[in-house]
Specification:
The chain is built from 8 helices and 2 strands. The chain has about 240 residues and is mainly α. The chain has helices spanning about 1-15, 20-95, 105-110, 125-130, 140-170, 170-175, 195-200, 200-245, and strands spanning about 180, 190.
Amino acid sequence: MIKFFRKIRQNLLMENKTGKYFKYAIGEIVLVVIGILIALQINTWNQNRQLRLSELETLSEIQVALKQDVTVLSTNLNSLETKILQSRELILHIENKLPYAKKLDRLFMNVYYNRGYRTFNNSGFELLKERGFDIILNTELRKRITKHYTTDLSDINGILIRLEQISLIRAEDVYNNFKVYNNSEGSGVMKAYDYEQLINDPKILGPFYQFELLNLHYERVLKGFKEKTEEVLNMVNTELAERKK
């Protein structure tokens, strides 16, 4: 193609057609510029296409993570609700000075130990940080996702850490009055060394009152966080549905 254009220019010069030569040269320059602009436009289009594919991939990762978190939150809330009911059952049994029952050993253990809550998935958000927050075009969605992982999730994890710390702080009070062991079924239980002393000394039961209040507070906060998580998930679902049309 280049040889073809060069031959045309040479013929024009040889025929002493200078005016036509300059017009042709200008036209050739215009064609080259147009070709460059088209190439740049195609390159820009390809780059934008890759960015949008990366955006959809990132949002899909966040969608999967949020769905997992909703499931985990539902499981945690069910566990908390059970723990709160067990706290009430335990405290009412002691306050009413009812006779010792073997079920109390399991209730003491279930109310005291807090475990299995911090299992949130932030892999999608880590991918977003790696690729850059601006990859998400929807400004409101980008803000909500960022707030969810940097503020809301941080608050929840902070509560969980405090819950664990309080369990450790009260450990001495608990272990001074209870024996911890595995029963015949292989499950961990806590048995009062002296049940008669327990029902007549409110201070021994003090930690369990505190755990009940903490669990009630955590349940309320966790429900709020689950609602926020579902809101962000719905926004991601809507964005992905719109973009894939």
